[in-house]
Amino acid sequence: MTDSTVRMDAIGILSSDLAASLAFYRLLGLSFPEGAEQLPHVEAELPGGIRLMFDPDSSGTDHGRGRIALAFHCGDAAGVDATYAALTDAGYHGESKPWDAVWGQRYAVTHDPDGNQVDLFA
User: Beta strands of 46-116 (E only): which ranges?
Assistant: First the structure.
């Protein structure tokens, strides 16, 4: 009998500007090899073994694809504020400044260079 357990293994992002995407996610603590901006496929392993994968979109179009949302836990409220500031100070789009959400979390929303939603929380 085989194990048929399904678990999330990877999140793929088709990037219109790979260098910009990698710079953004490096600010969130992800590590990529030196020169990764020139590779046709780049991965970072996240805690728990999930892989975040990037492939450049050389066509310059999004082919009608849907957008993704990623959530990053920032440790505490000050971490949310600092991370949001680091991203927006670096020129990335801030959708919603940090706020104390009614569900008890400190929360903020940004976008990566391809317009994908990135939630910051604690």
Answer: 51-56, 69-73, 94-100, 106-111
